[in-house]
Model the fold of this input.
Amino acid sequence: MDATDLLRQAGSIADAIEQLADQLKPDVIRTARANADGRRDLDRIEYALGTIGKALILTDYSIDQDKDIDKLNAFRQSQKDMA
Done:
């Protein structure tokens, strides 16, 4: 694969992950935790995300703490809105 193909692949992966992240709402997580199959699926998601995170960090990806905090705050707010 040449650089153009690899960049296209990275963009495609990013698009897919963003679409999936939009679907993983707190109510989906809570419902999944209440079921054995759902818990297994959440474990698979967590493992996949951990693998992606490690790959990014281990290949000299710099972490933007401000962006990470913004995402965490948005998630916490969405949990409060569900209550």
